[in-house]
Protein 1
Amino acid sequence: MNSGHSRFIDVNGTSLHYLEWGEEANPPLILLHGGSAHAHWWDHIAPSLARTFRVLAFDLRGHGDSSWITPPAYEIQDYVADLEAVIATLQLDSPSLLGHSLGGFIALSYATAHAPTLGALIIVDIGPQLRQSRYMRLLRTLPPPIYQDEMDLHNRFRLLPADTQATADLLRHIAHHSVQPGEDGNLHLKGDRAAMIRQPCDLTPLLPTIVCPTFFLRGQNSKNLSQEKLGQIVQVCPQAHGVEIPGAGHHIFLDQPFVFLDIVTNFLHEKEIVTTADAQRGQGAGQKKRYKN
């Protein structure tokens, strides 16, 4: 897989790592990963997006190869401030945002204040309400897993949530970039456990302010965003539409990468989306629905 060019940028006293693909003259597209993930989650689809976009995939603070924050500062406003600084520092004009899970919520939060400056907004399997998770709070207090070697890593590494249709090769790639060698010779997860929890946040009252073309996706088997909630969100956002991806759970772009790429690329270029029937057939050139005005 093509991991792009590895770069670092200093913003808000924090060193953020990111991967970049495509020509600098292309329209910018920022990819934001989910919680406990990292920029390399996008390696299997970013090169395709980079045919027509300048693609930048960031490790959020406390994730991947970006800095840990002491004392911990991992609230939504901290992530949004980093995104604001990155866009300003790199002078990204009318960027489009594509965010999954936590990254989607960060993108959504950014859009409530900056929607007129965005080319497009794509939110993957998360709604406008971020709640505290008892499971994540418990997980944060437990010792992180330690792996003896790559074989042990590949045997025991799991996503959060664990359910996925991703290929074994893709999971091995993600696992490989999730760890680093420790002084004890073992492999340790890169992410800061303190970044696993944050205060609740509700963006529902601000959804009408998101006036840029907006696309919400949910996995058919996801427990994170219900079909009913997806419909409610679409009705409130001025230029939004939503699609359910068959055969996918929370990790849509890992479970169904070709379908995901097809409909996302179509949206980014045409500001249209394919119908659910098209998604089921894996087609992006069939019947489309235009965004409501």
Protein 2
Amino acid sequence: MAYHTPINHKKIFELVTDLYIILSTDLIILDVNRALEKASMKTKEELIGHYLFEVFPDNPNDKTANGVSNLSKSLQSVLTQKKSHTMAVQKYDIQRPDGIFEVRYWSPVNTPVLNSENEIEYIIHRVQDVTEYMLLKKENDTRDLLTEGLQKKVDEMEVEIIQRSTEIQKLNFELEKKVKERTETLLKREITLAEQNQKLQNQNKELEQFTYITSHDLQEPLRSLISFSELLEKEFSDKLDGNGAIYIDFITKSSKRMRALVKGLLDYSRIGNNKELVETDCNQIINDVQDDMTSIIQESEAKITIDTLPVLKCYPTEMRQLFQNLISNAIKFRKKDCIPEIKISVTENQNNWIFSVQDNGIGIDQKDIHKLFIIFKRLNNRDEYEGTGIGLAHCKKIVELHGGTIWANAELNKQSTFTFIIPKL
């Protein structure tokens, strides 16, 4: 099997013999390679972070100097047209560390790098130092000092420059083509993703509407079924045999359980209807939840320990339901002859609040952990523990409504800890 060593683009950038400057769109120098450092007689520290024409000004002693003006026009053309621009050979003197300007001639090309939105991220300024060639060319024109050997060297350099310019133009064309193809591909993907996202949002809205209408419309016939079964039991209980009474009791209990399931489904569909985020004190939410659950807390003698909780932006009604469901579950699924102990705590990092609700209840079998948050998925016998199996599905939807995640750590016959993350807004 062939092995390909990964390409180190940064190393290549540093070692190429052509001179490169990477510029921001406001012409601040972002990076240079070693060849540019050497040719400009300046270090990276003297260049990076500085305005291009601050470190490369025109020669004040040359009244005909127009390097800054020409380069500025070329860069503005790139920023406007979003296309590469190849400049004619420029006389652009370089200032030495001692302040004296040296005569230099350059062959520059300015190339934009576009992002997925077809906007310029930065500009690559590539130049070749053709000073030696231009000086020899001038000497050739005067024909004073040029020998046959120098003429040959000039010719060779001219051929090399032409060849390299041709190669660079070809590479620039290929680069522009690849950038264009990549940009078009990204745009197509973004359009497809946006269409799929819109389609999914429409389907979710239709599903929520269907769920609401269905669960709402089911309540009326269920109320009638429960009412008439109770009337039947009240008026005819003395005329029914043993089996008849059992049948009516079964109908009543099944209808009430169905009503609870429909109500749970309706509540589930309503989560998130109020889209207004409100600055909310979680301590007050817990106090309100405990007030609502006073009866069950006193009956079970539950001990609830609560950390100081944060004030955060959330959907208050849904957040209250989240805590109530988790506390209610912790009390409901307690061990027999064991006082429930519940601890609510919170930690934070730079971006999130991390809440946990820990209990000392019956625990959860590891093989069932993945089923916890599935709607109507019960893990315990209905006769032993009441409920519809929708409470934790509510919790998951509420946490995801806030942009967070929820999970459980538990073992059978040991404590359970439900942890959920609410992002800071």
Protein 3
Amino acid sequence: MATKKNIQTSWTAARDKKLETMQAAGKTAAEIAKALGTSRNAVIGRSRRLRGIVYQSDIDSWTRANARRSAEAHKRASARADQQKKALAEMTKALNAGMAKPRAMLRAFRAGAYWRQIGDHFGISQQAAYEAAKKARRPRK
């Protein structure tokens, strides 16, 4: 069985107090790190653990990252919605051309439409749409 090692920390109550004092004076994490003889990351980590203090650069970084992720997600959702509309339009076109309903439903699903959307198109539940399309999947005997 492995034994746990006691992690030694150089953060004492006096160093914590000095860190808080320097932060209150408006010093940057780099300036505090230099004065305490430690790294900037150590100062940032300790300040977060002590008081939950967050630097503006962190907030800016999170804001940029979240905005980028949000924009990417919106772009993917828009593309998915367009693909689903196209799949439903193709299903309608196939039905008008005489394709069997279960086969058209299955093609629409494989093209990206959700069972819920297919069911809504026919006024049935998503489960009923799925069950109806299952018939088109079965191999012919």
Protein 4
Amino acid sequence: MNDNKPSLLIINTLLNVYKDHDPKWLGLRRPGSGMTVADLHVHTQRSDGTLSLDEVPAAARRGGLDAVAVTDHDRLSSDLDAPVTTREGVTVVHGIELRVDAGHQRLDLLGYGVSPTDALVAECERIQRNRAERGAAIVDCVEERLSVSLPIEPRPGLGRPHIARAIAEVSDYDVDGAFAHLIGDDCPCYVPRAVPAFERGRALLTEACGLVGLAHPLRYDDPESALALCDTLDAVERPYPYADDPDLSAVDRAIERHDLLVTGGSDAHDDRLGLAGLDSAQWERVRDALDVSPE
């Protein structure tokens, strides 16, 4: 017996452990594509994530990643002093996810390689004031409806996931139930936010970012209309951990029609980075567009 060969028992054990898991939960793309090396959709405590910025590199390495983009909701990272930096051997792209109003639906734009402008900073500050006011209104509604006191205070960066977690602490609702019955769209305690129009949001990001793309296009009520707006964008998010296995043909048509770069990411709000993202070839194209030299 060749002792250098792995034991068949070990191999079979590993296969039995992982055979029922979706590849994206193992940090891999689907069969036939490469390993995920870049997760370009990650949230931190600056908005509604659980990771601090200092914890992102270690989480990235656990996910087998070379690069991440920090894309907090409507908020810039004050601790990222360049469009792209390296932290503990991990490339960190300064990004932002900006909610915009496209008329009959609201969309999320992803800006990558941020060099903050006065206009974008001012708009983010306005949005954060509105977020705090909106958060206070949602909290008041939930507390009155459930006759509870939520362990949360309105603040910049406050989002509905924060409120949902607070509801789960003091009620019979879990986080999903809080969204489904209390604070989700069209629920009794939902309060809409004041967001910029699509054209204004796109212009603000175009001025401040190296790349601007559409986030998770198949999550919207009207994906085709959302994808049609990509004619004024640089990129679209294709790899994404949708709940089902959607038909991506409309996304692929938009990529070809508008000559878009492919971005992708896990939309991580916890420490599980790399559940979706770009393989090395895809990341290289984005990296080149951001004019980032490989380490």
